[in-house]
Amino acid sequence: MATHRPEDRLHQSFADIARLLERHRVLESLAHQQDSPRRDLVEQLQHRQNVAELGKRLRVMHAADIAHVLEGLPLDDRMTVWREVAAESAGDVFVEVSEAVRGSLIEGMEQAALGEVLTRLDPEDLAYVSAALPDEVRARVEQRLEQSERTIFEDSIRFPRSSVGYVMTREWVEVSDQHSVGDALVSLRRLDAMPPQTDHLYVVDVRHVLRGVVPLPVLLVSEPAVRITDLMREDVVTFSPTDEAKSAVGVFERYDLVSAPVIDNRGKLVGRLTVDAVLDVLRDESSLQALRSAGLSEDEDLFASLWDSARNRWPWLAINLVTAFIASRVIGQFESVIQQLAALAALMPIVASIGGNTGNQTMALVIRSLATDQIQPDRSRRLLTKELSIGILNGSVWGLIVGGFAVIIYGQIGLGLVMTGAVVLNLVIAAAVGVLIPLGLHAAGRDPAHGASVLLTFVTDGMGFFLFLGLARVFLV
Known about the structure:
mainly alpha, about 475 residues, 22 helices, single chain, 3 domains, about 65% helix, about 5% strand, Tetracycline Repressor, domain 2, MgtE N-terminal fold, globular
């Protein structure tokens, strides 16, 4: 039996799709160059042949792999591939793609075709993608749901997108606290299929209040006459539907969870949070955090229109322009100093650069710690003191090294001392803002990563120039 690593299989699938698309373009171009009555027939035959081969390749691919391929294709090729995705897997692919790519698929589809894809989704998946749908399409699809499905759909969309209630599933296996192991096994055999990621049975009382859980392996090896409550674990990690979904990531990692019950404020079982949903949240949060750290406020399709991509990058580019102008005015205040000692112009980027690097290291550590709830309010001062101490230590070591090189190159001891002092002071400032910027954004209820790198660069550049040139004015000129 041949085996392939998932990464290799995905890369091969992408390469196969790209090859088919390229061949399609080449044959289409050749057919257009023919000037004969049979040109239309040739075009039709080559189109059918390529479409058939493309569809055949897509049918053996996993929905997540097809989604990955769609995200890596330009818009025209993306729609070509999307039209050939089999109807039975189109819904799963539609759920798997990123929000930005999903939006491009919606724009490129007729509403009737979009409706056919949506009707194949279960109510929870439909709720997951509902925010991106045109109102009339969503209303039409919702009307086609059965009453039980509509109830699940409406219950899902009433929770915020960032909440546990929005991503939880309403499929689980429960047993009464009055049952025995034999009764529970009989109930299991009546199921058509076990819900995905089922590792526990939930034990409830007559009011549907969660009392505990029984691990599925324990149930399977126990004697039929044993009561469920004798096997039950009461120390259960639970979530509320209103909890932040991203807070579940750390909990699942800490306790190695596969699934966890979701209960309301009365303790009643209302849902189940599974590891696949948590991984989706982690992926989305990681992607969004990476974008926000660069000043991008939303997910961006790699092959979106020029206008949409440019507009998404405007806000923080404008802020960066303002901060860069302020930094340039700091340098402008020391023009006379630079004119008298040209070496300053060559050396001052070093001070700003090393400060920015130190600040980014500190800030990345703090943002990660905030994401994993490792920083408590009473520990913030201790963290700041530690990072300032590290800044002094690193500044002293590397400041002496940089200052030594300055003395060697320019032969001026005073210049080396000024360089050393500026590096020490800027690393201390960088450490301080690396802690204070994310903590301040977090305290204000903002994402600590949102534009933090832009603010940090402004401070370390501006202060680096000011400290170096200011010390040079005092001690060298």
